[in-house]
Amino acid sequence: MIFEPLALAGAFRLRLEPSHDKRGFFARSFCRDEFAQMKLPTDYPQLNISHNARRHTVRGMHFQLPPHAEVKIVRCVRGAMFDVLVDLRPESPTLGSWVGETLTPDNGLALFVPEGLAHGFQTLADDTDVLYQMGSAFVSGRSQGVRWDDPAFGVAWPSREPIISERDAAYPDWKP
Does residue 176 lie within any of the structural domains? Predict the structure, then answer.
């Protein structure tokens, strides 16, 4: 596995290192030892999947408050998605900045999302499935979000007309 740092400190693009033969390929999508070498969390007690029936579906921008702040590894296992991370860490030099990556099964990319970043995505294809390895269990009372299209972030979403839940659409603008 190849760890490529993103513009937000502690966030990484994870690239597979496939071994190809006539059957296809084999690749590790997670290795505890490799994560430990990178000084990243190695315990992921929860694995989630979201199925998104329609293109342009938005989920986000989500995070959990301490002491239940979470890290995640996010991978697209079917379809295509534009994955977005926004830095909400008050002490960060990139506070309020965002990065976005297109994730597909074909490109094999995943993102490591550290604590203190909001996470969300928009699907680029119908029937998109997203797999999340969660570094902590979900705690509903600690779950928060910021508005997906908050102008303070200026995220360049592929579509400005999303399919979005009432909860996600009602998140407030960010207040640093």
Answer: no
The verdict on residue 100 lying in a domain is: yes
Catalytic residue among 44, 56, 119, 132: 132
Report yes or no on 23 lying in a domain. Answer: no
How many Å apart are CA 14 and CA 29, to the nearest integer? 8
Asked if residue 174 belongs to a domain, the reply is no
Q: 44, 56, 62, 119: which one is catalytic?
A: 62
Q: Report how far residue 108's alpha carbon sits from residue 16's, in angstroms, rounded to the nearest whole number.
A: 6
Lowest mean pLDDT among 80-84, 135-139, 167-171: 135-139
Q: Which band of pLDDT confidence, cut at 50, 70 and 90, is reported for residue 176?
A: confident
Active site residue 56: no
Q: Which of 84, 76, 74, 72 is nearest to 52 (CA)?
A: 76
Whether 44 is catalytic: no
pLDDT band (50, 70, 90) for residue 138: confident
Lowest mean pLDDT among 75-79, 87-91, 113-117, 138-142: 138-142
Query: Which residues constitute the domain of residue 82?
Result: 2-18+28-169
* Distance from C-alpha of 58 to C-alpha of 19, rounded to nearest angstrom: 34
Q: What is the CATH number of the domain that holds 79?
A: 2.60.120.10
